[in-house]
Inverse folding.
C-alpha cells in the first residue's frame, strides 16, 4: 500500500483494526482529531517527505516547514498509542526535514555563522546515518567495527614498514655472525628462516595491536610493553657490549610519525561504534 500524496484521515474513528502495515507514505498523513489510533497497525510503515523512487544519490530534502509540523503532530498522536518504534521513526524524519528547512531559512536571512554550524550538523547526521542508521541498527556499527580491524592493520603495517625491515636486517646480521665460517648456502638458508620468523612475528604483533585497539578502554592494556618495544625497535631492547667492546645503547621505543594519530583514531572510532551498538539494543528493548 502506497500513498503518493498527502493522505487525510481527519476526524475519523477507527472502530476496528486498520491495516497500514508496510504502508508507504510519500508525504506525512493527517490524522488530526481522529480517535482510536491504537487500533491502526503501523508495523513496517514508512512516512517520509520524498518519493521512494527518487535517484539514489538524491537525499531527502524539503524546505516546506509544514512537513515538519505534520510529522510533529503525527508523532504526538502516535506517542499516545505507545508505538515506540514508529514514534522514533517519525522523530528521525522530523529531524531530517529540519535540515532543509533551517538551511533555507539561514541562507535567505544570510546568517552565515548559523548556516556554517547547521551545515556541520548536517554532516554529523550523515555520519550518524552511515554508522548506525540513526541508532536503529546494531548490525551496521558491528560491521563497521569488524571492517575497521583489517583496515587499521594495513595502516599500522604501512606506518611500521621501515621498522619491520629493520628487524629483518637485524635478524640477518645475527644469523651471519652466528654462522660465520660456514658455507654460503647454510648462511642463505639461515637468512631465509630468520627473516620468515621475524616477519611472521612482526605481522602477528601488528595484527594483535589492531584487534586490541578495537576493544575500547580495556583492549590496549592487553598489549605487552615488550611487544611494543619489538614493534618500534625490531629487537628486544638490551644494553651490553659487542664482541669488539663497543657499547650498545638500549632501544628507545618511540613510535614513528602518524602512528599515535592512527592509534587514537581507531580507539575513538571503536568507542563510537560500540556505543552505537549499545544504543541500538537499548532502543530496541526500551519500554516506557
Amino acid at each position: 500500500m502506497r500513498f503518493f500524496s498527502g493522505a487525510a484521515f481527519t476526524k475519523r474513528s477507527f472502530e476496528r483494526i486498520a491495516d497500514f502495515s508496510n504502508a508507504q507514505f510519500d508525504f506525512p498523513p493527517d490524522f488530526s482529531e481522529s480517535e482510536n489510533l491504537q487500533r491502526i497497525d503501523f508495523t513496517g510503515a514508512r512516512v517520509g517527505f520524498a518519493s521512494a523512487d527518487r535517484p539514489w544519490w538524491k537525499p531527502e530534502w524539503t524546505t516546506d516547514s509544514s512537513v515538519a509540523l505534520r510529522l510533529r503532530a503525527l508523532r504526538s498522536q502516535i506517542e499516545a498509542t505507545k508505538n515506540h518504534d514508529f514514534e522514533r521513526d517519525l522523530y528521525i524524519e522530523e529531524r531530517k526535514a529540519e535540515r532543509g528547512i533551517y538551511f533555507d531559512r539561514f541562507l535567505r536571512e544570510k546568517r552565515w555563522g548559523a548556516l556554517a554550524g547547521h551545515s556541520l550538523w548536517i554532516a554529523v547526521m550523515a555520519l550518524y546515518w552511515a554508522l548506525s542508521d540513526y541508532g536503529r541498527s546494531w548490525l551496521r556499527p558491528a560491521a563497521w567495527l569488524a571492517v575497521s580491524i583489517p583496515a587499521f592493520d594495513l595502516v599500522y603495517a604501512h606506518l611500521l614498514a621501515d621498522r619491520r625491515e629493520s628487524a629483518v636486517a637485524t635478524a640477518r646480521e645475527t644469523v651471519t655472525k652466528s654462522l660465520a665460517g660456514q658455507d654460503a648456502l647454510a648462511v642463505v638458508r639461515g637468512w631465509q628462516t630468520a627473516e620468515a620468523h621475524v616477519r611472521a612475528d612482526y605481522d602477528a604483533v601488528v595484527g594483535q595491536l589492531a584487534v586490541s585497539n578495537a576493544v575500547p578502554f580495556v583492549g590496549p592494556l592487553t598489549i605487552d610493553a615488550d611487544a611494543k618495544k619489538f614493534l618500534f625497535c625490531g629487537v628486544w631492547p638490551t644494553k651490553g657490549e659487542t664482541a669488539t667492546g663497543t657499547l650498545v645503547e638500549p632501544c628507545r621505543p618511540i613510535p614513528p610519525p602518524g602512528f599515535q594519530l592512527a592509534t587514537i583514531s581507531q580507539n575513538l572510532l571503536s568507542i563510537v561504534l560500540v556505543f552505537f551498538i549499545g544504543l541500538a539494543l537499548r532502543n530496541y528493548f526500551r519500554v516506557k
Summary: The radius of gyration is 30 Å.
